[in-house]
Amino acid sequence: MDFVQLPTTLLAQVDAAVGGKVAVDLPEGKNLLGAFHQPRAVIMDTQALRSLPARQMSSGLAEV
Fold first, then answer.
1. Is the model's pLDDT at 15 over the cut of 90?
2. pTM for this predicted structure
3. Where are the domains of the chain?
């Protein structure tokens, strides 16, 4: 299945740029069904990062 990612946090943008891991949450728990599949595209709006609290930015920078 083709998909496009629209990450809205710095952490999500870093993960989306190099990841490829996709997962689905089920009623029994988080990320129980998963696979590795690259998105068709990753669209990053870096202007959206301006609205994030400092803690969210720190989490993303730790992944860089």
1. no
2. 0.67
3. 4-55
